[in-house]
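Human: I wish I could look at a protein chain and see how it folds. This is the protein in question:
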Amino acid sequence: MKHHLPPRLWLGFGAILALSLTSAQGAVSLPSLISDHAVLQKSSKTVLRVKAAPGEHVTATIAGVRGEATATDPDGKWRIEVDLSQVGQVPFDLVIEGTNKITISDVAVGEVWLASGQSNMEFLLSRSIGAEEEIAASANLQLRQFRVNYNAAPTVQDECKGKWVLADPATAGSFTAVGYYFGKTLQQSLQTPVGLIHSSWGGTPVKSWTSDEALESNPELKAGKDRINKDVDTYNAAKLAYVSAFHEWAKQYERADKPADPPAFAAPGIPTTDWQPVVLPGKFSAAGLPDSGAVWIRKTVSIHGTDRNVISQLELQTPEGFETVYYNGKLVSSVTPDNFAGIGARHYCYLKDHVKGDNVIAIRIYNPVGGAGLSGNPDLLTFDKIHLKGEWLAKTEYALPPLSTDAQQTAPQPPKFVLRPQNRPSTLYNGMIAPLLPYTIQGAIWKTTSAGPASTKPHSPS
């Protein structure tokens, strides 16, 4: 039986709903950068970005200093300027008021620096030389980090995710190592709070951190951007066609994969007396292993000290075939004809929960066409900073007979590799730099994958 509310109650609920919607639309909100434990730049024109309803009057107060503005922007985005040039170092509450009131606690005023770049900036303090001693002595209320979450965005974003943390033994290990030592030195030298905005992503090109406007202004950069975008636009259709053609071809020539039980090859404690040595990178055929079929390779890696319990990267360069990776018997990553990224792809597997001591990396490579193995630069076959080039152990799961000429000629070719989102033009600028631009900073440090000290480039507060 249906129950109906009296018309008077419907009107009451409608009024409450309308009031709630009006309040939500008019409520002042703040970006994640303006949150507890934040560091604001000591400047006569420190900018605070606020979002509220069009026409709403908003004030910001900190350490007795007050700024205010009335929104005229139809999308509700605001900027309030406050003069923090004479504010001391004691942390304060920041109070933002409009139709609602927000209090941000433990806000310091000092130097704010952007720490950005690639893997050498992303490299964590927990993995640096002398990390255990440094982390144990890292408690410093005047040194803080905001880690920008990964976000490769196709369009410019207003907001990023992350949070401010104070340096102490529980958090310092997650600081960028370059940024930590830079910030620590700066903080001790200037005797002022230092805030690091850490926005980096290893293995990414500079063009990903460059705005679309900047790429468009240079004919050569624009041509490269357009070429990549064209590949992206046509990739999905080409990938679907490849997957369909591969399965038809594999069935016709009896090359479909037939995996065995993984623990028999991947488990850490299995006997390996019947495994044979193979030098990698290189072709399996050089060691008398099958040129096509399924071959397992494994290597024991010793992990010591601060390498324990951190996220790490296994780089296989370019496996000749479809690889499945196991770490201490646990599946990490599996590349199949259905999810293969394409020709030219470099495969990375991110491993978590390290175990201190000896650990086993086991990789199964299925190659139905021929030329099985691992190729590429020997120095790029690594597990974190540990080189894996040289002797591995190998065992054949099954071998496939050589292909006929007809089968070789009709073997489908995968599409051209499409860059991962984080490697495409402007995506990291859109998602990890643009949302930071309204925030007033003193300068930026950038670290690439090349050797050498971190570079600094002064940047006037704006």
